[in-house]
Amino acid sequence: MLLEVQNLTKIFTSGLIGGYQVRAVDGVSFTINEGEIVSLVGESGSGKTTIGKLILRLLTPTSGRILFEGKDIMKFSKKELKTYYYRKVQAVFQDPFASFNPLHQVDKVFHMIFDSYFPDLGREEREEMIDKALEEVGLNPSEVRGKYPHQLSGGQLQRILIARALLLKPRLLIADEAVSMLDASTRIDVLNLLGEFRDKYGTSVLFITHDLALGYYISDSTIIMYRGTIVEMGETEKVFHNPLHPYTKMLLESVPDLNVKWEFKGIEPEKEEGKVWKIKGCRYAPRCPKAKDVCFKIRPTLIEVEKNHWVACHLYQSSREG
Ligand SMILES: Nc1ncnc2c1ncn2[C@@H]1O[C@H](COP(=O)(O)OP(=O)(O)OP(=O)(O)O)[C@@H](O)[C@H]1O
After folding, report:
1. Any idea where the ABC transporter domain is (predicted)?
2. Spatial contact of 194 and 207, defined as CB atoms under 8 Å apart
């Protein structure tokens, strides 16, 4: 097993006077195997990015652990941390334009890696490695090298960032909404690229997205998040073709269908933000059409309903007990 997230919790304090605590990630556990592509799916604010940042050690957990190759990442020595950041984990984020300095040629992003980790690498070797990395992500080095960010498209920039992330063949790539800003055809090309890298180098991918269709397309396993908690997870085929949690069902029903036109159905009023995080039971209970008393009182735990398919829902738990 490559990565093991154990009972991870991250609490932020929000608001000034009378502020409230946001349990952005609340008791989350999952694993990523070598060469596995796992989608982390959920609507805005469900805690996906926070999980990515915790794995990247950009945030410190409030409680729980993240084990990488069996070692607690918060206990890494300085040397282990340096290795973690270049050979083990890399990340690509949503907005490719934000990752480039508009005043620098795009190649600079590669030299930053060389300067930090291989300061002694000769010029020729560097050039060769950059060209090879660019070719691997389907770019023609002579078309992109020496250019400034405004001279390239979002798709080309995102490919360059993927090339940089994959330059050192990391074990895990965290792709946080990495294709969301690309147009539909470029998006599929970039997704295919991630799949090809996994097949070629065994790179695992944590694919963070709010788009169910993209998650289905690329991933072996899917984790559905709601307000900091996992409501359902398992093999992608099982989660999508036999969804169990009312939230997963609702999400799947909301995927727009090409044959159906938009129709006004009323807008659900926003819950008072501070109150949502205080809910003792299932966080989805206030929105769930099937909620019972117990759903508001006790947090359901994940149970394995069929092989490699877990759900956290009292509906299922009580019917099993009954
Ligand atoms: N630094 C912070 N301080 C306070 N609250 C935060 C902070 N970072 C995130 N949050 C809150 O934690 C919750 C989870 O945020 P997060 O960004 O992880 O969600 P997300 O699922 O990635 O959403 P999105 O898809 O919109 O990026 C949100 O309610 C957010 O407002």
Report:
1. 3-252
2. yes
